[in-house]
Design a protein that fits this description.
Layout: E1 2-3, E2 14-18, E3 25-30, E4 37-42, E5 48-53, E6 60-67, E7 72-80, E8 86-91, E9 95-100, E10 105-111, E11 117-125, E12 141-146, E13 152-157, E14 162-168, E15 177-184, E16 191-196, E17 202-207, E18 212-219, E19 223-231, E20 243-248, E21 254-259, E22 265-271, E23 277-284, E24 290-295, E25 301-306, E26 311-317, E27 324-332, E28 336-338
Antiparallel strand pairs: 1-28, 2-3, 4-5, 5-6, 6-7, 8-9, 9-10, 10-11, 12-13, 13-14, 14-15, 16-17, 17-18, 18-19, 20-21, 21-22, 22-23, 24-25, 25-26, 26-27
Amino acid sequence: IGTYTNTCKSNGIYVYEFNANSGDFKLKSSSENVVNPSYLSVSADNKFVYAVNENGSQSTVSAFGYHAKSGKVTFLNKNDALGDDPCHLINDDKNVIVANYSGGNLAVFKKNSDGSISNVQQLIQHEGKGLNATRQEKAHVHMVCFSPDKKYVLSNDLGLDQVFIYKYNPNSKNEILTLKEKVAVKSGSGPRHLTFSKDGKFVYLIQELDGTLTTFSYNKDGSLKLLKEINIIPKGFTGVTGSAAIKISPDGNFLYVSDRGDVNSILVYKILKEGNVELVEQVSTLGKGPRDFAIDPIGNYLLVGHQYTNDIVIFKRDKVTGKLTNTGKRIELCSPVGLVFTKI
């Protein structure tokens, strides 16, 4: 679990053991003196954890050794993010790719043989602005995501209302990402996070500013085709919203989206044929600021981290209906922001 460390007492990264049969948990370990490691990415071999350190112009990206059995994270090194407020990152065996929100750019780091990261090898700056003068005054890169075959990297820019699609050249020295195309979405919508369907044929994009949920078909040549737009905001609702995380259940049958602001809920959608979705339910997350959530790899539980009420609420998940039930179990933790499951 990645946290913010500047609002309450936090060590940074926390590792809990979670029982996906009972929903029970126990604290295993935490980092020490790590600044705002809000989003985390674990290496495929389960030996390393990478974190953004979201700290304005002082922002960095950090590498840690990870011992899964003990949960211990050991600091390896960090480097300047070369962009303010990194908010998301991914990694493979060659590179760590970071989305810098306030910087409006992408930074690519090479991985060293010991799991540490190099200085930035490539920096890609997005330029422009969007319709919303307050939130879209410039580029705001909000996410990076590998295509299922790892041939492309998709990057949402909240400030520009565009999804950038980059060809991925993992072995290149400083042309690791080369722009293939940009896909425009609804003006003022603010694309935030996306996820691929289990079969890789569809992409679901949640837009933070206006609650649009967009479905694309995905072609293996790295292109997106808009299929449908719906809205996750309840009819007649006039309060503040802020769509956040979007995830698919391990069996690929259900889509989950969190909404913040005054809503503080998770919407559950059943995935139908041809990528269509149908609303199953909308449930309160029982806290404020559901910035991120995670579904355990078996699909039994969904855990929601609340940035403002400082807890993680554990819901039981019905695998047949997709519906969520409050278990009453809570992990009390300062400002949880990013949740990720790893193998033991």
